[in-house]
Amino acid sequence: MKSDFLLAITQLSAEKNLPKEVVLATVESALVSAYRKESFAPNQNITVKIDPLTGKVKVMAEKQVVEKVIDSRQEMRLLEAKRQKADAKIGDLMMVEDTPADAGRIAAQTAKQVILQRLHEAENTAIFDEYASKAGDTLVGVVQRIEPKQITVDIGRVEAIMPASEQAYGERYRAGQRIKVYVVDVAKTAKGPAVIVSRSHPGLVRRLFEMEVPEVFNQLVEIKAVAREAGSRSKVAVGALQPGIDPVGCCVGLRGIRIQNIVSELNGEKIDVVAWDNEIATFIANSLSPAQVTKVILNEAEKSAIVVIPDRQLSLGIGKEGQNVRLAVKLTGWRIDIKSASDEEVERAEEVARKQAEHIKPEAVEKQPVAVPVSKIEEESVGKLPPAELIIEPAVKETPAKVEAVPEEQGVVVPLNVLDKVSEGDSVKLRFAEDLLPRREVIIDDKNKNKNKKKTVKGKDTAEDGIKLKGKKRRNVTDYESEEIDF
């Protein structure tokens, strides 16, 4: 039958959720401290052993073999030593059983404090080891307290802390709410192990895919990269490890049922699943989905890429406040510059024109003749002639050439002295070409008359006899009229 002491140790191990061997080792070390204060020397080497079946306590103390005992706690006679070891001699150190009959009150109080302290340390160590192995995993917790700078979440044997930086933007928490959290870090502190959890870490999306997609859990589909802006949007690059498997279709599921469960867990956060590719140009084009990419120009030295997108999808490729491009940069690890197709064509045309200009300009400079001043040529030509041969020609007076009169096609010849006559006071009547031509009759149809009648506007100023006043509207002239002008 087990003793009461052994039953108490078993109950204590169950309450603290610790192995029985750990509790026994803790009690043994606590009894060593208690017995050393009460029955042994301060620096004496002693050990305590507890029988796990009967619960009997046995204390072993180290003593030195001497001829004459002065301190019985640390020394023993040679005769007693030979009873335990036949070849014992003076000066030997031996471990002998020296269990005290009863411990005092102070020793019992010391043992109690040491046991509680050691049990607390053992419990903290066990908790740290348990959750340190769960770092990078997803746990289900219950919100306990909501503070301005952090939220306390109960995840089992310990209360985890979720700082404000690890909370998803736009999420609201309440006490008693069950949430899934991602274990970011586990650290030892003076108050015990501190577990930091997160709702904004990209690893949470990865673990949710492993929980919802069997192909990801069975390693048929691998999640290559995850880029996330918590509470808004995420991009996940997936690739198939086995031929014949559609990685994007496996993650989305039939009618999107799998991806919908993940979106619901993240409180409506949008998730884009893109196909991963070994070719970085193809991968960059896929990462900018849902926009369609026309061309990708890579610069491997600077690890940058220029992506050309049609004009109608330029805003879709950039995203709201550049969100789509930012996530693509995080997903691929390359710097991405986006240009519209029209801008790319303009730049290409300017580049071609510049190259052509650079190619033609040197040839034009080579073929261009050197300009020589005219005065210099005249001086050289004059200087070459001998002075005796210089000929001075007399000036020739040019006579003006006669200008033949060009007959006019039509019209009336007016004498040049008309103005002289006008000045003298005589009046001259001028006649126009229309007066000399024969008159022609203009036939006006009834239809034209009706149209003219319809075009008349009521309320216009007219004469008393109904005749339209001159100057109000252009009138039809049936025949030519001659006008006389007096000078």
Automatic annotation (TrEMBL):
<dbReference type="GO" id="GO:0003700">
    <property type="term" value="F:DNA-binding transcription factor activity"/>
</dbReference>
<feature type="domain" description="S1 motif">
    <location>
        <begin position="136"/>
        <end position="200"/>
    </location>
</feature>
<dbReference type="InterPro" id="IPR013735">
    <property type="entry name" value="TF_NusA_N"/>
</dbReference>
<dbReference type="InterPro" id="IPR004087">
    <property type="entry name" value="KH_dom"/>
</dbReference>
<keyword id="KW-0694">RNA-binding</keyword>
<dbReference type="InterPro" id="IPR003029">
    <property type="entry name" value="S1_domain"/>
</dbReference>
<dbReference type="GO" id="GO:0006353">
    <property type="term" value="P:DNA-templated transcription termination"/>
</dbReference>
<keyword id="KW-0648">Protein biosynthesis</keyword>
<dbReference type="Pfam" id="PF13184">
    <property type="entry name" value="KH_NusA_1st"/>
</dbReference>
<dbReference type="InterPro" id="IPR030842">
    <property type="entry name" value="TF_NusA_bacterial"/>
</dbReference>
<dbReference type="InterPro" id="IPR058582">
    <property type="entry name" value="KH_NusA_2nd"/>
</dbReference>
<comment type="subunit">
    <text>Monomer. Binds directly to the core enzyme of the DNA-dependent RNA polymerase and to nascent RNA.</text>
</comment>
<keyword id="KW-0805">Transcription regulation</keyword>
<feature type="region of interest" description="Disordered">
    <location>
        <begin position="447"/>
        <end position="487"/>
    </location>
</feature>
<dbReference type="InterPro" id="IPR015946">
    <property type="entry name" value="KH_dom-like_a/b"/>
</dbReference>
<keyword id="KW-0963">Cytoplasm</keyword>
<dbReference type="GO" id="GO:0005829">
    <property type="term" value="C:cytosol"/>
</dbReference>
<dbReference type="InterPro" id="IPR036555">
    <property type="entry name" value="NusA_N_sf"/>
</dbReference>
<dbReference type="InterPro" id="IPR010213">
    <property type="entry name" value="TF_NusA"/>
</dbReference>
<feature type="compositionally biased region" description="Basic and acidic residues">
    <location>
        <begin position="458"/>
        <end position="468"/>
    </location>
</feature>
<comment type="function">
    <text>Participates in both transcription termination and antitermination.</text>
</comment>
<dbReference type="Pfam" id="PF26594">
    <property type="entry name" value="KH_NusA_2nd"/>
</dbReference>
<dbReference type="Pfam" id="PF00575">
    <property type="entry name" value="S1"/>
</dbReference>
<dbReference type="InterPro" id="IPR009019">
    <property type="entry name" value="KH_sf_prok-type"/>
</dbReference>
<keyword id="KW-0251">Elongation factor</keyword>
<dbReference type="GO" id="GO:0003723">
    <property type="term" value="F:RNA binding"/>
</dbReference>
<keyword id="KW-0889">Transcription antitermination</keyword>
<dbReference type="InterPro" id="IPR025249">
    <property type="entry name" value="TF_NusA_KH_1st"/>
</dbReference>
<protein>
    <recommendedName>
        <fullName>Transcription termination/antitermination protein NusA</fullName>
    </recommendedName>
</protein>
<dbReference type="GO" id="GO:0031564">
    <property type="term" value="P:transcription antitermination"/>
</dbReference>
<dbReference type="GO" id="GO:0003746">
    <property type="term" value="F:translation elongation factor activity"/>
</dbReference>
<comment type="similarity">
    <text>Belongs to the NusA family.</text>
</comment>
<keyword id="KW-0806">Transcription termination</keyword>
<dbReference type="InterPro" id="IPR012340">
    <property type="entry name" value="NA-bd_OB-fold"/>
</dbReference>
<keyword id="KW-0804">Transcription</keyword>
<dbReference type="Pfam" id="PF08529">
    <property type="entry name" value="NusA_N"/>
</dbReference>
